[in-house]
Every structure is written in C-alpha cells, then in structure tokens.
C-alpha cells in the first residue's frame, strides 16, 4: 500500500534526497506530501523544490516550542492524510503534545527517525563523532519509532558498519551515511508493504501483556 509521508528536515537533506530518489526510481511506494523545516534556509528545502515537492518552513526562532508545534500541526491538518512523519535530520525534539496528534491505535506514534549510531549507544546530535571518539570497532545506523524521550523508541531496523584503524572521522561518517541512504528508503518500503507492526520487537513486559490478553 502506498504511504503518504511528510518529511521533516533541518539541514543538508542527504536522507531526504535518498528517499526522493527511491520514490522516483519506483523502489519506494510513497508519496512525499510535503517537506517541512524549522529552518527556512535548509538545503533540504532546495532539494525538495528541485524535485517539484511542496515545502513549508517555519522558523522556531522567537516563538515558544508549543506555539511552533501547534502551527506545524495546524498546517499538517490542511494537508489531508499523512500516514507517517519521517524525520530526516530534523533538529528539534518533538514534545509529547505534538506526538499525541500521531498516536496510532496500537499505541505507538506514527513518527519515524533515523539515528547515526546503534541505539541505545550514542544518542544525541553527534552520534558519529561520539562513536568515533569512543573508539568503537563497530557502529551502525538505527531507524526507530519516536517516543517522548530523545533518540528513543521501538527499533525498526539496525545496520552495523565497521570502523577501520585507518579511518578519519570523515571516512567513518561517509561509510555511515551511505548505510543511512540505503536503509531509510528500504525501511519505509517495508512499512508500505507490511506496516509498522511487523518490524519492531516488543519488550518482554509487552509480550507478557500480550500473552495475558490472549488467554
Ligand atoms: C543524519 O546523519 C541522520 O542520521 C541524523 O541527522 C543527519 C541528517 O543528515 N538524524 P541529512 O540532512 O539527511 O544529510
């Protein structure tokens, strides 16, 4: 089933570009309804426009988080059905107030993020740098559902990649980014094909609850 997505961006837009390419190449059955940014100058907005995708930018500067989120929510309402919010380098933490607007009947929020580490290791804005500086021999990329905590929530997919002795931070990041660019579109395609539920593993307490309900 084709999915309708809104992609949230703040910067360079290389993941957005990978998602657009996958849609254009027929590898991802999705409609990018709009690309939304908190930074009117984000390069990602230019990428979207070059591909004929509508954009909407609202700077967060000078307004309270709640008002910024409310104005984006109001804007989203006008776009009709959005199945998933796809965060691709969106540098704002979404509050539970915002997330509640995307609560699925199965309990999770229909908001997806990509993070440049094997979560729960190295959350935060410098995933690659922190993993590299720590001296890991293996790092990776995580695609997960978003919850109220930062870089946290049910994991949909993880792909590891090696760090070699001769790596610089740049070569390490480049290896990770190329993993991101194939992983994100392919996870979105799996969601289009089988839905979210088949992709994450429930935690033990959740499994126990499910057993109790089934009895
Ligand atoms: C990526 O590394 C992504 O994992 C992280 O932010 C970065 C965004 O890069 N959440 P880009 O804007 O997609 O190039």
Total domain count? 1
CATH architecture tag: 3-Layer(aba) Sandwich
User: Structural class of the secondary elements?
Assistant: alpha/beta
- Poorly predicted ranges (pLDDT <50, ≥5 residues)? none
Number of strands: 7
The string of secondary-structure elements, in order, is EHEHEHEHEHEEHH
Mean pLDDT: 94
Rg from alpha-carbon coordinates: 17 Å
Count of alpha/pi helices: 7
CATH superfamily: Formyl transferase, N-terminal domain
As an assembly, this protein is: single chain
Largest sheet: 7 strands, mixed
Considering DSSP H and I runs of 4 or more, what fraction of the residues is helical? 25-40%
* Beta-strand content bin: 15-25%
Q: Give the CATH topology.
A: Rossmann fold
Output the CATH class name.
Answer: Alpha Beta
Distance between the termini: 32 Å
- Small molecules (ligands, ions, cofactors) in the structure: 5-O-phosphono-beta-D-ribofuranosylamine
State the shape.
globular
Give a verbal description of the structure.
Helices cover 38% and strands 20% of the residues. With 215 residues, it is α/β, with parallel strands linked by helices. It has a single domain (3-214), classed as 3-Layer(aba) Sandwich (Rossmann fold), CATH 3.40.50.170. The model has no long low-confidence stretch (mean pLDDT 94). α1 (14-24) packs across α6 and α5 (127-134) crosses α6. The two termini are 32 Å apart. It has helices at residues 14-24, 43-50, 65-77, 96-100, 127-134, 169-194, 204-214; strands at 3-9, 30-37, 55-57, 84-87, 111-115, 138-145, 155-162. It contains seven helices and seven strands. It has a seven-stranded mixed sheet. It binds 5-O-phosphono-beta-D-ribofuranosylamine (GRF). 5-O-phosphono-beta-D-ribofuranosylamine is lined by residues 11-15, 44, 88-89, 114-116, 180.
